[in-house]
Amino acid sequence: MPEINWLAIFPELTLALGAAAVLLVEVQWKPRASTLGWLAGWIVLLAAVFTVFQWVWAGDQLAAESTGRLVTFSGMFLVDGMAVYGRLALLGILGLGLAGAHGLYEALGRRAAEAIAITLLAAAGFSIMLSSNNLVLTFLGLEVGSIALYVLAGLTRERKGSDEAALKYFLLGSFASAMFVYGAALLYAGTGQFEILAIRDHLAAVIVARPAVIFIGLGLMLVGLGFKVSAAPFHTWAPDVYQGAPAGIVGYMAAIAKIGGFITLARIFVTGVIEYHATWAPVMAAIAALSMLIGSVVALVQTDVRRMLAYSGIAHAGFAMTGIIGGEIEGVLFYVVAYAVQLIGGFAVITAVSGPEGSASDLSEYRGLWRRNPGLAAGFALLLFGMAGIPLTSGFIAKFGVFSDVWATQPWLVILGVLTSVVTLAFYLRITVIMYMEGEEGDPIPARASTRWVVWIAVGLTILWGVIPGTLLSFVADAFAL
Amino acid sequence: MVEAVLFVLMAVAALTGAVTVVLARNPIYSAIGLLGTLFSVAVIYVVHLAHLVAAVQVIVYAGAVLTLFLFVIMLIGVDKSERRIETLPSQRIGVGAIAILLIAGVVAITVFGNFEWVPAAASVIDLDATNGTVAAVAEPMFTDWVLAFEATALLLTIGAAGAVALAHYRRRN
Q1: Residue B173 binned pLDDT confidence (cut-offs 50, 70, 90)
Q2: A343-367 pLDDT, tens per residue?
Q3: Nearest to A351 by CA among A26, A179, A126, A98
Q4: What are the residues facing A70 on neighbouring strands?
Q5: Is the CB of A73 inside 8 Å of chain B's CB atoms?
Q6: Contact (CB, 8 A) for A148 and A125
């Protein structure tokens, strides 16, 4: 029998059982969508309590050992700082996502239960993915998370855009998943190990005479994960999916895929195959540079806010990847969480303006937003400044963190990053100008209480982490002292 | 000796089935030909003590997938005459070229590659080997790999809930 540490999988177990509970409650009592949403919220809170407990408990456990990691389920599953930090981030985003999708769930009527259950399972999948020590389990977590996201993209299938987005995401996404699993198989062929820590030990101990198989495997895995985080040139799905999927859920979809993808990328490349750092770093640098360029330049000509945010997301994938290239993890951990919060807040504003089910959000809809709903306009502007990386927002600290990681080794990437940041500022400012300086009086745009909460929590965190970055940085630092 | 005889019988059956799939005019015959191929290959798996793979082959492919095929064929209608105009021009030539390339590759490797073919039927099968039996696969699956096994359960849940979420919408309007 394998040694089983139940506490290690409590958060995922809670989410999975919670999803089942939501479905069963729907069958038995048929409550309103917001009741189910509250149930899901309590489930998320319970999972978060377990995760915080893991943080404390793992700290005590690991103080005695020197490995810095707790490996359980026969080497399948990890409880280490990165995993617990990632889980907490996913659960936080899940809570915000459930609140932000409130309007969508109500509009879905009786299908809300399935939608809420799948929302929970998506987070469970990415949580498994980033805590996995075994490439097979990593792949399964990736699939659980991704397939849930394909369904979420198609929730409002009666609208053409949503149907198209779901199908496109599904076809391209399954192709990328196949790439990942092929890469994992080749890495296994080259090293004889499925476990990431075992691969690291193997590569440290043995000089592989012909590492070509390993390199091809790593390349394929990079393609698979690059797709998930929408890094160029694997980004083509992102604008269509961000635009077509129901507005209420897009922020959540994009945010958890980025968190899961980047932490897994860091785990495999920085923890697993750091021995080949000199080989994979230039490839990743090229992908990061391309993402920054394509994302920032193409975003300039978009006329739809969601497409614009999709391209800015591609640029942000490039910025975040810069943090991994240095072989460090702290920068990218801070970056993805700060960006995910801004993203989900920004899409909450779009939900309020374009409606939770909508499949388009033209720039013209945002004209004079500050007269029609001053709170939303101010929140959106602050979040956009955060994404641009203006000082005193978390975006600035995050960019500073990832760029300082690579300044010593790849200064050209930092210069490119700063230049493209300036370009991104142009279109963030453009939205702000449209909101504040154009348009006349229009009908006021009401925003639900849940949407306002999401926006203001996101704005609050963005400013808090920008002014006192220690509030998040100390967590990141603690994550590695665990 | 038994292995060799079984192999030859089953290989001939599998190839016959495969040829039927391609050549039969009636799609039902094609489906039945595929069934023959799948069964013959399953018998070869049993000979090599891969019991689980053989069972999965029969249950999943010969059982579920083929039933689905037949269902679809019946649904479309067996009697409906098929248009035999090729939509992709010169695809036969293309496929032929790829086939010839593949065969040439195999011949080249056989002739120029310095290794020996060891036909499985000729080698002695270790009857005590248990690495492919159901028990041998089940034990690690439910001990060391139990977490991965449970993760696939999540996939099934998403599949069921997702199908409802995606397919239920027409009733609304």
Answers
A1: very low
A2: 999 999 999 888 877 767 788 888 8
A3: A98
A4: A79
A5: yes
A6: yes
DSSP state of B24: -
Check CB contact under 8 Å for B157 and A73. Answer: no
- Answer yes or no: do A118 and B164 touch at CB < 8 A: no
Cis peptide bond prior to A233, omega within 30° of 0? yes
For the domain made up of B2-80+88-172, give the CATH fold: Four Helix Bundle (Hemerythrin (Met), subunit A) (1.20.120)
Query: What is the spatial distance between Cα A295 and Cα A292, in angstroms, rounded to a whole number?
Result: 5
DSSP per residue, A400-461: HHHHHHHTTT-HHHHHHHHHHHHHHHHHHHHHHHHHHHS----------HHHHHHHHHHHHH
Q: Are the Cβ atoms of B147 and A151 closer than 8 angstroms? A: no
CB contact at 8 A, A482 and A81: yes
Q: Scanning every residue of chain B, which has its alpha carbon at the shortest distance from the alpha carbon of A78?
A: B147
The beta-carbon neighbor of B165 closest among A20, A118, A125 is A118
| Test mutation, B141, B144, B145, B147, chain A, max A CBs within 10 A | B147
Question: Domain limits of chain B?
Answer: 2-80+88-172
Is B169 within 8 Å of A158 when comparing Cβ atoms? yes
The count of other CB atoms within 10 Å of the CB of residue A120 is 26
Please give the ipTM for the structure prediction. 0.85
Q: Which one-letter amino acid corresponds to residue A165?
A: A
Rounded percentage of chain A residues whose pLDDT exceeds 90: 59
Tokens of A267: 């785990």
Enumerate chain B positions whose Cβ falls within 8 A of a Cβ in A.
143-148, 151-152, 154-155, 157-159, 161-162, 164-166, 168-170, 172-173
Q: What is B43-92 written as a DSSP string?
A: HHHHHTT-HHHHHHIIIIIIIIIHHHHHHHHHHH-SSSPPP---SSTTHH
Q: Chains A, B: CB contacts under 8 A, how many? A: 87
d(CA B79, CA B118): 47
> Cβ of A110 under 8 Å from any chain B Cβ?
yes
Cβ atoms of A118 and A151 closer than 8 Å: yes
Note whether A155 contacts B143, CB cutoff 8 Å: no
d(CA B57, CA B43): 10
- Residues of chain B with C-beta less than 8 angstroms from the C-beta of A141: 151
Pair of tokens at residue B136: 């041998």
In the structure, what pLDDT confidence band is assigned to residue A5 with cuts at 50, 70 and 90? confident
The number of beta carbons lying within 10 Å of the beta carbon of residue A443 is 6
The pLDDT assigned to B115 comes to 64
Tell me which residue in B145, B164, B173 faces A114 most closely, judged by beta carbons: B164
Tally of CA atoms within 13 A in the half-sphere of B66 that contains its CB: 21
Element (H, E) at A482: none
Q: What does the pLDDT read at residue B172?
A: 47
